Amino acid sequence: MTSKQRAARQGNATIFDVAEQAGVSIKTVSRVVNNEPNVRESTRDKVLEAVERLRYLPNVAARSLSGRRSRVLGLVYGSPDEFSYMKDVLDGALSACEERDYSLLLRPLTLPNAELVEQVERFITQARVEGVVLPAPMGDLPDLQRLLRRLETPFAAITPKVATAGQVTILCEEQAASCSLTEFLIERGHRAIGFIKGDPDHGATAKRFAGYRQALAKHGIRYRGRLVRQGYFNFDSGKAAAAELLNLPQMPTAIVASNDDMAAGTLLAARQRGLAIPEDLSVAGFDDAPLASRLWPPLTTVRQPIREMAKTAAGLLMDRLNGNATEPPVVPFACEIVVRESTT
Amino acid sequence: MTSKQRAARQGNATIFDVAEQAGVSIKTVSRVVNNEPNVRESTRDKVLEAVERLRYLPNVAARSLSGRRSRVLGLVYGSPDEFSYMKDVLDGALSACEERDYSLLLRPLTLPNAELVEQVERFITQARVEGVVLPAPMGDLPDLQRLLRRLETPFAAITPKVATAGQVTILCEEQAASCSLTEFLIERGHRAIGFIKGDPDHGATAKRFAGYRQALAKHGIRYRGRLVRQGYFNFDSGKAAAAELLNLPQMPTAIVASNDDMAAGTLLAARQRGLAIPEDLSVAGFDDAPLASRLWPPLTTVRQPIREMAKTAAGLLMDRLNGNATEPPVVPFACEIVVRESTT
DNA sequence: CTGAAAGCGCTTACAG
DNA sequence: CTGAAAGCGCTTACAG
After folding, report:
1. Is the distance from CB of A200 to CB of A230 less than 8 angstroms?
2. Percent of the residues in chain B that have a pLDDT greater than 70, as a whole number
3. Rounded CA gap, B133 and B119, in Å?
4. Which of A86, A139, B191, B199 sees the fewest Cβ atoms within 10 Å?
């Protein structure tokens, strides 16, 4: 049986089959397949042709075993009900991995979690995960940081509170966007603007809040702590926080929620008090989740390029793993305000 | 250097280290680790103890290469904006894989897709995916079916139109649930009940529609085709279909949408015509997505145990791959009606 | 109930 | 620019 027949029958040719077809050694095939230098052009062509003909795909297990590296990235995340943020992270990370022939393995976690370290260690060790992508707030958990350092596993943190030296950090201009959003409301005449903060564990929380204060200061509006409430990036916390703001003797005329899910909660709280949106109250969110355009009225919000951020995070992480990058520059991504009907 | 020191330093002991510690051969260690029979109890204990002490975790690459099987399952899915259904599928599949030490690899696809076969073939071949989980409508694509048959890759289809002999099929009682939901409206006095169908490629579509008709028939209400519109399981299609229904000379007093995202579109269309929900129009959906409880008014809908269905799908698939199951029984999962404020 | 040998399909380290 | 040899860490197939 020829190698071609064998390949056709089994559905997978090996490096030996390709080498035989091309009349070279397996080492040369390996060089070509891995884009290594020092192969004569004509040799490369012969190999490529054989690869094509036999529909050769390197066996990832063999590669992983012999190369002592898995070409596997991990994505460690909390798993919120409103999953749209994570969906974008997932899409972006997957897309980057596909481009570089890496696999992406997922490790959802419930937080807080006493067994976090144990679970992640098992995850990383068993699959020989080379590096992990950490969407917020994973990039800021001290236990996790310590574990990754111990396992010598590089990571890419998406919008962490603080950048870790030597690790990939992806940021976006959240403070500027939050400032612009608040200013947008100020320019429309709002003076009493409520603000619902996000989960204190997330890096975004402080930045979005800082943008709010910055806008107030810029326009000479006195900051009032009672217009600010703590939320946790989920619907119920937004609803509860909004209810408090709407019970204030001097109700705000606008509320900025630190994400869309909390803005949805704000809409519901307003509704339960019989308020018309935006006539009685303007509401704005953050994220531009699908939810934002499905609510009534559709939400004014801030669009972050989450998918691109995640793709870049995973891409830079793989670059680093392959020695193609030193300390990568931390270029913050730009955000964009999306004006819809929930504000006036 | 002892094996223990080596393991401590590298962070991964091998089967040789465990064998040495336990004073047995690597084959015996392999037997214990894989829960194979024919190991003396005392021997098993010795091995287990060594495994524990060295924190031994089998190298998945070596296992995969030598065993000619990857312990990898694939999840092939379309990637809708409103991702909550897929989130539950993902959670369920991941959970099943974790229990059995399988990895789950994702392959999102945009549909329709001319390169579908090529992309999935590459996906399956390269990672040596043993079996794939196919959420609707993936289980019904003829090209995909043919490919999987050619690659001899078993699959588990979640709510396909038709069950494929020899493959895992997971169903839920959609027709019954749709019938109950429609009856619920009829019992409240509704007679002109609109219906928005889902994507014709999904198995759920015909069943949910059949349940609607069944309820009408049961209560002696004449079926009127003009009260039925085609949708595609997304917001915009639901909005457009609802707008048509609301433009009818004889507007329906209730609309059942075949999923929550289309019900959200229905709410928006109603709003744009100044209709009060549920006073002027009752609206119901399907899925009980997070969206359903974030809308105003919160949606009456049908909850499917999607996570459990996906977990069962992946579990039965792995059983089959490991020869632990012949033709598994097709037990349809039960659905549950969730009554909220969008209906009266 | 247990083990010695071969081999899975690659990459690494080395030689020329 | 190219290749022969060894080895990654397991499982398979076989023997006892």
Report:
1. yes
2. 95
3. 16
4. B191
Mean pLDDT rounded to a whole number for chain B:
91
Query: Cβ of residue A239 near strand D, that is under 7 Å?
Result: no
Distance, CA of A169 to CA of B337 (rounded, Å) = 45
Determine, for residues B126 and A57 on separate chains, whether the beta-carbon distance falls below 8 Å. yes
- What residues of chain B have any CB closer than 8 angstroms to a CB in chain A? 11-12, 57-62, 64-65, 70, 79, 81-84, 86-87, 90-91, 94, 103-106, 108, 122, 125-128, 151, 235, 261, 264-265, 267-268, 271, 290-291, 293-296
Asked if residues A61 and B64 have their Cβ atoms less than 8 Å apart, the reply is: yes
Contact call for residues A261 and A234 (beta carbons, < 8 A):
yes
Domain ranges of chain A: 3-64, 72-173+306-335, 174-303
Instruction: Tell me the average pLDDT across B138-146.
Output: 92
The 10s digit of each residue's pLDDT in A149-160 is 988 899 999 999
Quickly list H helices, chain B: 3-10, 15-22, 26-33, 41-54, 60-67, 84-99, 116-126, 142-150, 174-187, 203-218, 235-246, 260-272, 290-294, 306-321
Task: Calculate the angstrom distance between C1' of C14 and CA of A27.
Answer: 13
The residue of chain A with its CA nearest to that of B73 is A105
Mean pLDDT of B73-88: 93
Sequence-distant (≥ 6) Cβ neighbours of residue A4 within 8 angstroms: A17, A21, A53, A54
pLDDT value of position A7: 40
C-beta of residue A148 within 8 angstroms of C-beta of residue A155: yes
- The residue count of chain A comes to 344
> Nearest CA to CA, how far is B254 from chain A (Å)?
19
Give me the architecture of the A3-64 domain, per CATH.
Answer: Orthogonal Bundle (1.10)
Residue type at position B132: V
Residue nearest to nucleotide D5 (CA to C1'): A27
Mutate to test the interface with A, among B76, B83, B152 (most CBs of A within 10 A): B83
Structure tokens given for B4: 């223990």
d(CA A251, CA A244): 9
Residues of chain A with pLDDT under 50: 1-10
pLDDT the model gives residue A327: 63
B72-173+306-335 shares its CATH topology with B174-303:
yes
CA distance A294 to A285: 13
- Asked if pLDDT for residue B8 goes beyond 80, the answer is no
In whole angstroms, give the CA distance from residue B134 to residue A335: 36
Q: How far apart are CA B320 and CA B68, in angstroms?
A: 17
Instruction: Please tell me the predicted confidence (pLDDT) of residue A329.
Output: 65
More confident residue, B87 or A328: B87
pLDDT score of A51: 92
Nucleotides of D under 7 A from a protein CB: 1-13
Instruction: Evaluate if residue B3 carries a pLDDT over 50.
Output: no
Say whether pTM exceeds 0.85: yes
Residue B2: the pLDDT is 39
Distance in Å from C4's C1' to B29's CA comes to: 14
User: In CATH, what is the architecture of A174-303?
Assistant: 3-Layer(aba) Sandwich (3.40)
| Chain A residues with at least one Cβ partner in B under 8 Å | 11-12, 57-62, 64-65, 70, 79, 81-84, 86-87, 90-91, 94, 103-106, 108, 122, 125-128, 151, 235, 261, 264-265, 267-268, 271, 290-291, 293-296
Question: What does DSSP assign to residue A226?
Answer: G
Q: Which of A105, A294, A296 sits opposite B291 (nearest CB)?
A: A294
Q: Which residues contact A138 (CB under 8 A, 6 or more apart)?
A: A76, A77, A78, A109, A144, A157
Q: Examine the pLDDT at B219 and tell me if it is beyond 80.
A: yes
